[in-house]
Each structure stands twice: as structure tokens, then as C-alpha cells.
Amino acid sequence: MAALLLRHAGRHCLRSHLSPWLCIRNAVPLGTTAKEEMERFWNKNTGSDRPVSPHITIYSWSLPMVMSICHRGTGMALSGGVSLFGVSALLLPGNFESYLEFVKSLSLGPALIYTAKFALVFPLMYHTWNGIRHLMWDLGKGLKTAQLYQSGVAILVLTVLSSAGLAAM
Question: Which range is least confidently modeled, 44-58, 73-87, 106-120, 144-158?
């Protein structure tokens, strides 16, 4: 209510035919400060012994829920990885080929190299396939509960197969 009155008074202040003294006279002070409102909110809610809603512990874990959390996590990890790679390319001495030669000189076994490549490409493939799934949801397709689980399993299978294929290159 007070915000509406202040907006109304502010509109009058913008009109050029009103004097500034008239604008100050029309201003309405707020009843409480933000600090008082915050204290009142926390006093009421901490005394009720209720969890902040919705709390993660009240939900049973499901495949779509876990996949949503992992989609956000892989997005943050990929963003951080690309940023770290870019900053390291700017700050570290040498070029990419010198670091590639260094890795080759370590004489790591093919199983370890394949595992490392799989670990690097898995988040990218998961985020890509799950992003396509989200685009389909934006079109209104696959939103029924059974379809959510079917597409979730399909995404996991596609992620493993495409990651294995890319790691083998």
C-alpha cells in the first residue's frame, strides 16, 4: 500500500507544473524498515520449528530430480572448465603443443588415457543430450511421467555410448 502511494506521489513529482515543495508534502513514509521486517520474519519462522519450505529432505529422490541436479552441475563444471582452460592458455608459458608433448612423455598406459578422455567428455555429452531433452520439453513433448523416465534412461544410454565413442578417438 505504501509503495503504491509513493509511486503515485512520484508520478506527481515528475509533472513539471508541480513545485518540489508540493512533492515532499505528498510523500508518505514507510511503516517499517527492511531490517525490522527481516527480524519479524525470522522471529516468527525460527520459533515455529518448521523447515524452510520446500526442503530437500521431504522429497523422495527420483530419476528426473537427480538428472536435473546433474544437468546443472555439469553446466557449472563445463563453464568453469572452459574458463580455467582459457585463463591457463593466457597465463601459462608455452603453447598447447608443448603441454601435449609433456603428457605424451609421461608414457601413460592406454587404459589410463582412455579413462581420462572418457572422464573429460562424459559431462559434455551428458549436458548436450540432456539439453536436447530440455528443448523437447520446451516444445511440449515428453512431459508425462512415464516419458520422463524413458527419456531419462535414453539420455543416460546415449551419454555412455557417445562418451565411449569419443574417448576411443
Answer: 44-58
Please compute Rg for the chain using Cα positions.
Answer: 28
**Total-model pTM:** 0.67
Which string of DSSP letters, residue by residue, matches the chain? -HHHHHHHHHHHHHSTTS-HHHHHHH----SS-HHHHHHHHHHHHHTTT-PPSSPGGGSPP-HHHHHHHHHHHHHHHHHHHHHHHHHHHHHSSS-HHHHHHHHHHTT--HHHHHHHHHHHHHHHHHHHHHHHHHHHHHTT-S-SHHHHHHHHHHHHHHHHHHHHHHHT-
